[in-house]
C-alpha cells in the first residue's frame, strides 16, 4: 500500500499541564485520522532548536525555548488524506486571539505565547519534524477497521 500523508502534532507543556491531552487527541481521532505514533517526553533544548530552527532570530525565541522545556510534551504522528493541511485548520491560527472558535487554539487558548499545540505546516515540514522526533520503528503501520467507512 502506498504511504499516505503524515503530520506531527504536539500537545505543548501548557496543554499537558492543563490536562487537555485527551480532548486534543479526541479531535483528531473523531475527524477520522489514524494515530501511528505517540510519546510523552521532556524535550531537550537541542531537539527544540532543530525543531524551531527557522525561528532562531525571532525576539521571542528564548522565551519559546523556556516555555517548551517547562514540562513534558505529548507528541504524535497522525496519518490520513490531506492530514497536514486539515490539522493546521483544526489547530487554528498561531495567535489564539485570531483563531476561530472550533479550532484547538480558538477553544483552549488566549495568548500566542501559550497556544497549547503544535502542528506541522507543510508536507516537507512534516517529514522533517517526524524524522526529528521519531525513529522509524516507533511509527506503526496498522489497518484501521473503519478504513472503508472513511475512504472510497
Ligand atoms: P505555528 O506554531 O502556528 O506554526 P510559528 O510561526 O511556526 O507558528 O511559531 C512557532 C511557535 O512560536 C508558535 O506556535 C508559538 O508558540 C510561538 N510564537 C510565535 N509567534 C510568537 C510571538 O509573537 N510571541 C510569542 N511566541 C510566539
Ligand atoms: Mg510553525
SSE topology sketch:
Elements: E1 6-11, H1 13-17, H2 21-31, E2 34-41, H3 45-51, H4 61-68, E3 73-79, H5 83-91, H6 104-108, E4 117-119, H7 123-133, H8 147-150
Antiparallel strand pairs: 1-3, 1-4, 2-3
Bound molecules: inosine-5'-diphosphate (IDP) and magnesium ion.
Inosine-5'-diphosphate (IDP) binds at residues 55, 60, 64, 94, 112-113, 115, 118, 121.
Short summary:
The protein is of the alpha+beta class and 152 residues long.
How would you describe this protein?
The protein has helices at 13-17, 21-31, 45-51, 61-68, 83-91, 104-108, 123-133, 147-150, and strands at 6-11, 34-41, 73-79, 117-119. The radius of gyration is 15 Å and the shape is globular. The chain has a single domain, classed as Alpha-Beta Plaits (2-Layer Sandwich). It has a four-stranded antiparallel beta sheet with strand order 2-3-1-4. It is an alpha+beta fold and 152 residues long. It starts with 5 loop residues before the first strand and ends with a helix. The structure holds inosine-5'-diphosphate (IDP) and magnesium ion. Inosine-5'-diphosphate is lined by residues 55, 60, 64, 94, 112-113, 115, 118, 121.
